[in-house]
Specification:
Blueprint (H helix, E strand, L loop, with lengths): L11 H23 L6 H17 L11 H8 L1 H17 L10 H24 L13
């Protein structure tokens, strides 16, 4: 028999399909707004992570399971790696960490916001999945 998570409510799949686009739209807005004002990456990541958790609760299977843990771990560290790469590159070019050249400031900040938001979303998703993608789901009784 197929192995699937237990469904807490029969209405949850329909609710998940209806609300997931709203989660994506809200996260995109928060991320865009955060690239022009303080904050944004954490809020967008939290909304994206909550959307992913809702989809798992609605019956969707996590796309990263078993042997595919390599990309999962790299994506989790994407925010930190991007921050360090930009900091070291700017230190080498300008002599100061995060001293963005005016022409590159907007794209660099947006790239950092996107990478941080994805890392935060996947971290929330991983915490929900007990820290790692599951190798299997409980079989329904």
């Amino acid at each position: 028999s197929p192995i699937v998570p237990k469904m807490p409510s029969p209405a949850l799949p329909a609710l998940g399909r209806a609300l997931f686009p709203v989660f994506v739209l809200a996260a995109t807005y928060l991320l865009w707004r955060g690239s022009h004002a303080p904050g944004g990456a954490f809020q967008a990541g939290a909304v994206m992570g909550a959307g992913g958790i809702l989809m798992v609760l609605a019956g969707a299977r996590p796309w990263l399971t078993g042997e595919e843990q390599g990309p999962w771990r790299w994506l989790l560290s994407l925010g930190l790696v991007a921050m360090l790469a930009v900091a070291v590159a700017m230190a080498a070019l300008a002599g100061t960490f995060f001293a963005y050249p005016p022409a590159l400031a907007a794209p660099l900040i947006l790239a950092l916001e996107i990478s941080a938001a994805l890392s935060i979303a996947l971290l929330m998703f991983a915490v929900y999945l007990c820290g790692r993608p599951p190798d299997h789901w409980e079989a329904e009784d």
